[in-house]
Amino acid sequence: LFMPGIGATMMFKYLAATILLSSATQAFSTVTKTDMASYLSHVPEGPPDAILGIAEAFKSCTDERKVNVCVGAYRDSTGKPWILPSVRKAEERLLADPTVNKEYAPIAGDAKYVDLALGFAYGAQADMTKIAGVQTLSGTGACRVGGHFLSKFVPKPEGMDKVPIYIPNPTWGNHIAIFNNCGMDVRRYRYYNSKTNRLDYDGLIEDLKEAPEGSVILLHACAHNPTGCDPTMDQWKDISDLIKSKKHHCFFDSAYQGFASGDAEADASALRLFVSEGHNVVLAQSFAKNFGLYGERTGTLSVVCNSLEERSAVLSQLKLIIRPMYSSPPIHGSSIVKTVLTDEELTAEYYDNCKEMATRINAMRVKLVEVLKEVGSEHDWSHVTEQIGMFAYTGMNSDMCDELTSKYSIFLTRDGRISLAGLNDGNIEYVAKAVHDVTAGKSITSS
What we know:
This protein is an alpha/beta fold. The chain has helices at residues 8-38, 50-60, 85-96, 111-122, 138-153, 174-181, 201-210, 233-245, 264-267, 269-276, 308-325, 332-341, 344-374, 382-386, 398-408, 428-439; strands at 67-68, 131-137, 164-169, 185-190, 192-193, 198-199, 216-220, 249-254, 282-286, 298-304, 391-393, 410-411, 417-419.
């Protein structure tokens, strides 16, 4: 190496400085990368989801006898997922329609779909001009958007720094995390009496009376998850009166309309009662179960307002919540629902499909109790036949559930909830015998 005009000494110093600078740069780069990545080594491993983790364990199980009665998704009489024929026909029409595109939906979603969805929930006689509604990522997204809205705008009770929301005990497990993440003060009210395996109506009323005035009360519109225990209409009326007297705010979660009884109008009775009695209901609505659109993430969030001005203001705030959260919703599932509900023949066929699912579920409910008796169980299982919806809340404790899984490869949640959709004529006797084995001589009610 030779550089004109630079002596040997200067050249040596130049080379030495270059080498030192290069080494320092490499060292700094290494330290910087190490420092930047070091926080990752402190990220703790999170716990698996209670339900989805069980589903994964079922998939990896090699026992040929295995039965999945965990996940809340419908299965037909052969144990296979079922696409509703009305949904399949609607999808075929969409695929054949050259005008259908894949453009972004507006922030609030497909307006026609939202109108149809709200009509499905609130009924043909509802005043839709005063209901602010947006399309959401199924019921989960509806709860998240609704919780954010309530946390921001519901006045906090005196002396509280968060808006309290009272959730039934037990409830769908995701409710707790959703509303915690919305910044709400999640509290519980009694709902299920494990001594009787039935609705704890007295405890429910007492807890709602004791809740601070102006609290948010979460109510399952029908087919309560996980218990399947719903109040009677007389009880719903009393709950409505109490909530009005305490100036509480109603948040309905409707995941099973039509799927519960097979009659979508009947399943909406509690919601419509509250609206008729003047509540400013907030409603999270899902089409996962009743349309079988589990993976399409199709739902709505709506708020019953008192005026057109309120509706406009509420809708604007819901859009402001959605825009930075997920910008706009997916369109395929909502397009299916819209196609079904705008065609008389498809609508009629859909109602038949929905009734078919509910009928099979109820048949499995009744048959499970019958077979339990046939195999020798002496327990009173009448609470199971009195329940409604996808699940049977059996009263089995966590040890019994663990034994069902370890000994019989029957996968279920550890609260004793059985998804009746997972039962069919080919496995119901096996499940009944296993349940009898783990419960014989033991109590299925708490003392």
